[in-house]
Amino acid sequence: MTLTASQAPTTTAAPAVEARNVHVRLGASHILRGVDLRVERGEVVALLGANGSGKSTLVRTLVGVLPASEGDVRLLGSPLRAPRGGRRAGAGQVAWDKIGYVPQRVSAGGGVPSTAEEVVASGLLHAHRLWLPRGWRDVARAALDLVGLADRADHPTHLLSGGQQQRVLIARALVRKPELLVLDEPVAGVDRPSQEAFAATMSSLVAEGLTVLVVLHELGELAPLVTRAVVLRHGRVVHDGAPPRPHGAHDAVGHDHVHPHEPAPTDDHGLADGPFPGREARS
């Protein structure tokens, strides 16, 4: 399948992601140092950088898993933290059902015996609806079909390959038909067929207007889709613009391609991912 890069549409809608002067301190470590990030609706933005540059910390902060020490984050036009005194239902709150998040590689079943269909259906639950809606099986299977796993719906997740489990997690993020999809290294360590299937799925969804922020070590199969690259180094943005050229080339900011994996003074601490605010814990 030939992939075509998405062009960010001209729109008056609020950005899908807007982060200003975001700092994250964990103990004595200053992980993020004044990060600014803006993702417009319809963009596919790759977040790149060496190990320990703060990529995972940033996406976890953007989706509310980690608190920002300083700075502000808005998703789909709403502040991540509701303003004080905003007690009216929905006032100043992020619409989490419009946001899909796939954390860094974890087991799809979370240690609980479950089928692929059941894991995907768990994405339909949230703090205000702790039961599955009517027709949930059809919705879950449709999401699995998007990632090429409709024929694995009844399979126990622990018997699926690592790549297939990752695609189940992506289907769980897609089951709500989100407007914004945030992915943390979705193809790290998975086989080539799974990478190709993921790229094909993203191509179709981006063509329908999905906004994507994805952490990658290398663009790989997603390269034709990426409209912009944001490069982190030591917790700071050092490049925001055209995706990098092939390995060994130098870009406009004068640094090598962003995958040398050189040691960094801070790391992402391997923190466990948690649920979105007001959302269920992962299955």
Q: What is shown here, in short?
A:
By secondary structure, the chain is of the alpha/beta class. The protein has 5 helices and 10 strands. The strands form 2 sheets. Strands 6-7-8-3-9-10 form a 6-stranded mixed beta sheet, sandwiched between helices.
Uncertain parts: 1-10, 83-91, 248-283
How big is the Rg?
A: 18 Å
Please describe the biggest sheet, giving its number of strands, its sense, and whether it closes into a barrel.
Answer: 6 strands, mixed
Q: Please give the alpha-carbon distance between the first and last residues.
A: 32 Å
Helix count from the secondary structure assignment: 5
* Relevant CATH superfamily of the domain at 17-76 and 96-212 and 222-241: P-loop containing nucleotide triphosphate hydrolases
Beta strands, count:
10
CATH class of the domain at 17-76 and 96-212 and 222-241: Alpha Beta
Order of helices and strands: EEEHEEEHHHEHEEE
CATH architecture of the domain at 17-76 and 96-212 and 222-241: 3-Layer(aba) Sandwich
Strand sequence of the main sheet, in spatial order?
A: 6-7-8-3-9-10
Relative helix content: 10-25%
What is the beta-strand fraction?
15-25%
- Coarse shape: globular
CATH topology of the domain at 17-76 and 96-212 and 222-241: Rossmann fold
Average pLDDT score: 79
Helix/strand-derived category reads alpha/beta
Characterization of this structure:
This protein has helices at residues 55-62, 116-121, 136-146, 162-174, 192-207, and strands spanning 17-26, 29-39, 44-48, 70-75, 78-79, 99-102, 180-184, 211-215, 228-233, 236-241. The model is unreliable at 1-10, 83-91 and 248-283 (pLDDT under 50). The chain is of the alpha/beta class. It is globular. The strands form two sheets. The protein has a six-stranded mixed beta sheet, sandwiched between helices. Helix 5 (192-207) links the parallel strand 7 and strand 8 (211-215).
